[in-house]
Amino acid sequence: MTLGRVGIWSIELRMGDPGEVREAAAELDELGYGALWIPGLGGGDILGDSERLLKATRSTAVAVGVLSIWRHHAAEMAAGHNRLQRDYDHRLLLGLGVSDPAAAHAAGRPYRPLADMGTYLDLLDQAPDPVPADQRVMAALGPNMVQLAGKRTAGVHPFMITPEQTAALRGLLGTGPLLAPYQAVVLETDPDKARTTARGFLGTFLGMDHYARSMIRQGFTEDDLIGGGSDRLIDSVVAWGDTDAIDKRIRAHHQAGADHVCLHVVGARSPMPRTEWQELAPLIRQHHV
Hints:
The protein has helices at residues 12-15, 18-31, 46-56, 74-87, 101-106, 113-126, 143-152, 163-173, 191-206, 209-217, 231-237, 243-256, 274-280, 282-286; strands at residues 6-9, 35-38, 61-64, 67-68, 92-97, 136-138, 155-156, 178-179, 182-186, 238-240, 261-265. The protein is an alpha/beta fold.
């Protein structure tokens, strides 16, 4: 499966008006983005939402980034995934995450992330229609989970990381597995406005224990997590400014070992950020290899 070097990560492509989602997906396909990533959010019909994008596009891959293993039965995901692969030229990448203790407890289970993910991968392997390892990725952040992803999936789709952390993850994975980091983007050149917009989206995640631990591993302090994130943290994990600034951040991830960078436009001027996606599209050619 070919993802290209640059893709789009979008809540809007999952939650937006169905007609506009189809139009936007078709346009993104024409613009040349390598993959369209949609989040798992609180569950729901993730495969149906993936199929809507697959049906609207011709060559762009569709990736789930990522579904919670606590909200979707492995056998159902495997059967649905395989049907979509047959029907749409093997363009679907299934992303998996262990979420957090609250999600596990809501499912009536203890939270043992490494063992839980290993069990879920076993179930995908043992399903009547197995999901091959090269058609699934993991939202791994910690070293043990990253190494599991490298052994049993196509690779990792990490959230809210710096290019320096991309380099560290590449070191853990080695040269083979896929490394496709999420990258929040704010197309705003005013520092105060850009950082305020970034905090409005990322601040919630900094209050979650697993993301807070990830930030600490990346060299930030507890003080950096306060108030939606310090300027230092925001500037490190969010690419803001004009398209040249965004290009610089994409290039930094690629130079650090990323295969594919997923751009999430934050603070768009309209409910479906098609204008921003158009503005970013020339960067695809600059990073084509």
